[in-house]
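Suppose you are handed a protein chain with no further information: no name, no annotation, nothing but its sequence. What can you learn? This example shows the usual starting point.
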Amino acid sequence: METARISDDECKGRCSAGKFSSKEGLSSDEQCMGRCSAGRYSLENGISSNDECKGRCFAGSFSSEIGLSSNVQCLGRCSIGKFSMEVGLTADSECLGRCSAGKFSSVSFSRGPTGYSYYHIHYDSSFSYLTLSLLFLCLLFFILYTLRVLSRFALSRRKLDSRLMHSAKDDAQREDIQKNLV
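A reasonable first move is to predict its three-dimensional structure. Written in structure tokens, the prediction is:
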């Protein structure tokens, strides 16, 4: 037999993050028909209006999607040459900042057809040569450092192996040490 509900405290279900409802008497999350508006999101469950969607897409990003439950769902990025310090944008056209004279932006972010973010890098010759040179130097340094560490380790191991072999008192002990070294 089902128990009687005697207070609102017994209504444990909540509209899920990104959704809301101002209606009373709901019986499931599917009845939460309201969605946080474009450029906004809510991490909280159980909100009753769009005004409670306190999250805003971070500066330089935007979303035209409704019902977002996290900042990472704001997949749009201000396009090349544009920027914005404003939060809660809904379209690239709201990115009103422009790179000033003598400056440029070579990187933009945009939402691909699968919903993932992609980098779009537009190279000029100085940017690409500088970037590739730095990457090459970092890779070369890493390889040389790794080889140095490995050679020191191998040298230390050989010295240790040699000391163990010389410390052996007879051939049987040397044979046991040799088996353990492999």
